[in-house]
Design a protein that fits this description.
The chain is 40% helix and 0% strand. With 240 residues, it is mostly helical. The protein is globular.
Length: 240
């Protein structure tokens, strides 16, 4: 197993300092799990997400395709975000900043940071190696897909945030885009071909590379180009 990196060690030292060397760190786990499953990890009223919106603890629950990696074993991974972050706390703070609209980073000795670390440390390892996460930076047009394959993909990869296509039933909040109508309306001045590019851009980048919105990016490993084309076909975002 890889050793925790320097900031993870600082995080762990903060936990031990707060609890005392003789006290069981697992006492912080329930609070850490609450942080994981609620949107309280960010104080912003604009935050839509919890960690669980994008990540599962271990085995994927309900067959959903979440954009983030499984978190079991994460405290021992050498890098995060496809190598863009070298320690776990920085990776957490990147999520909080990019997607949770958190104004300030968590520090290793803050109670919420300590509880979250204790919770992550309690998870059964899935893998302690770096998880591949290839962000598609240069957006290119995609070939047409298959709507019959796209419908179940939309259900497992999109509906848990956006709700049902065309109605939005079940979406996280009213501010989450109704697909595809709202996105098409927001870009009505563009050609159909460019509207399709916008959809691809949003899925591939979200807000991660400075693009608008607060959607997390779907890597090639989570949703490949062929599958994305199938989802677009199901939504009738054909470019024609």
């Amino acid at each position: 197993m890889n050793k925790p990196n320097s900031k993870c060690m600082a995080w762990l030292i903060g936990l031990v300092t707060l609890l005392g060397c003789s006290e069981e760190p697992l006492s912080e786990v329930p609070h850490g799990r609450r942080l994981f499953t609620s949107n309280s990890l960010s104080p912003s009223k604009l935050n839509l997400y919890s960690c669980a919106s994008c990540h599962d603890e271990g085995n994927v629950s309900g067959g959903l395709r979440k954009s983030g990696a499984l978190l079991g074993g994460s405290i021992s991974r050498p890098t995060f975000w496809g190598g863009q972050e070298n320690d776990l706390l920085d990776a957490v703070n990147a999520c909080r900043s990019y997607f949770m609209v958190a104004p300030e980073p968590l520090l290793p000795t803050e109670p919420d940071a300590i509880a979250l670390y204790a919770y992550l440390a309690s998870l059964r390892p899935v893998t302690t190696t770096a998880v591949p996460f290839t962000v598609v930076r240069d957006i290119q047009p995609l070939e047409r897909g298959d709507a019959s394959r796209g419908e179940p993909l939309y259900t497992v990869a999109c509906s848990y945030c956006h709700g049902l296509a065309h109605t939005g039933v079940g979406r996280l909040r009213d501010s989450v885009s109704l697909l595809p109508e709202q996105t098409n309306m927001e870009h009505a001045s563009l050609s159909k071909r460019l509207q399709r590019i916008v959809f691809i851009e949003k899925v591939r980048h979200g807000s991660f590379l400075g693009y608008g919105g607060d959607m997390p990016p779907f890597s090639e490993e989570v949703l490949n180009d062929s599958e994305l084309a199938d989802v677009l076909e199901y939504l009738a975002v054909t470019g024609e």
